[in-house]
Amino acid sequence: MATRTLVTVSAGLSTPSSTRLLADRLTAAAEASLRERGEEVSTRTVELRDVAHDVVNAMITRVPTGGLRPVLDDIAEADGIIAVTPVFNASYSGLFKSFFDVVDPEDLDGTPVLIGATGGSPRHSLVLEHALRPMFAHTRSVVAPTGVYAASEDWGAGGSGGRELAQRIERAGRQLAVLAADRSPAAADPYEEPVPFADLMSGLGT
């Protein structure tokens, strides 16, 4: 059985951050749903602040260096992506946008994506629909129907906001799991493992 791979991208800038907390909970929900479907799953979480300088260099030179190259490789091979950003000025953070600007759009074509965001006020929840969803639709990603926004008040223990957040996280994780599990393997590159030259020549004498 093939192992399904999930890559979680967290654009939080502080340690700890509510953005990373939401990213971890969404990842756990998607993992649990995949395993309930009998799938093996492997995950990697990327903190964008750790590769921020490499992202800026790649935007200027168009050449990924340092720790960015393996991150981009993982994105290209992922069966599902969880992308979570803090809200700055009513939109995604500059680091979040810059990172996905250096991702090859072809690597996101058809890839299931679960979007999430965090902010101090519930009024910023529309960032999922007016900023994140259009951005990933432009790259032809398959965006899970449920996006998850978490305001500061949603993290309170035992309140209705906390229960509703948990329900949204579970539903979104389940939707991503379905999309990732149904994702067809990428077509093999015929030039990745070419026929050895000796084998090609062996038939010329017949």
From TrEMBL:
EC number(s) from the headed UniProt entry: 1.5.1.38
GO MF annotations in UniProt: FMN reductase (NADPH) activity
Keyword Flavoprotein in annotation: yes
InterPro entries for the chain: CE1759_FMN_reduct, Flavoprotein-like_sf, FMN_Rdtase-like_dom, NAD(P)H-dep_FMN_reductase
Keyword Thylakoid assigned: no
Ranges where the NADPH-dependent FMN reductase-like domain occurs: 6-155
One Pfam family matching this protein: FMN_red
Keywords: Flavoprotein, FMN, Oxidoreductase
NCBIfam families per the UniProt record, alphabetical: LLM_duo_CE1759
Protein name listed in UniProt: FMN reductase
Lineage: Bacteria, Bacillati, Actinomycetota, Actinomycetes, Streptosporangiales
